[in-house]
Amino acid sequence: MNQQNWVEACAENEVEVEDVIRFDYEEGTYAIYRTDKGDYYATDGFCTHEKIHLSNGLVMGQIIECPKHNGKFDIPTGQAKRAPVCIDLRTYPVKIEGGKVWIQIGS
């Protein structure tokens, strides 16, 4: 992994357990999650069904539910789980370092 692609997204404590926040960087927008197990994940920010930001959605365990049409995605894999979504979310590697959440953008 190229160290230059790691971007500081937020402080660890900015994301509550079973919550999601928005993170904008350059021309992209992302969703940063903390699941029921306390693990952090990152995906593209917009639902693949319609361009609604997932930071307004509901996190249940390891599932994010889109706020508009209630489509669901698996947070760790980005896999579409319930219609109307049928296209998976892109996921990004996450690391915790120095009390900060970092995501790897790009390859």
TrEMBL record:
The keyword Iron applies. It holds the Pfam family Rieske. It comes from the Bacteria. Its cofactor is [2Fe-2S] cluster. InterPro entries: MocE_2FeS (IPR012747), Rieske_2Fe-2S (IPR017941), Rieske_2Fe-2S_sf (IPR036922). CDD domains: Rieske_RO_ferredoxin (cd03528). Residues 7-103 form the Rieske domain. PROSITE patterns: RIESKE. Keywords: 2Fe-2S, Iron, Iron-sulfur, Metal-binding. Belongs to the bacterial ring-hydroxylating dioxygenase ferredoxin component family. This is MocE family 2Fe-2S type ferredoxin. It comes from Paenibacillus solisilvae.
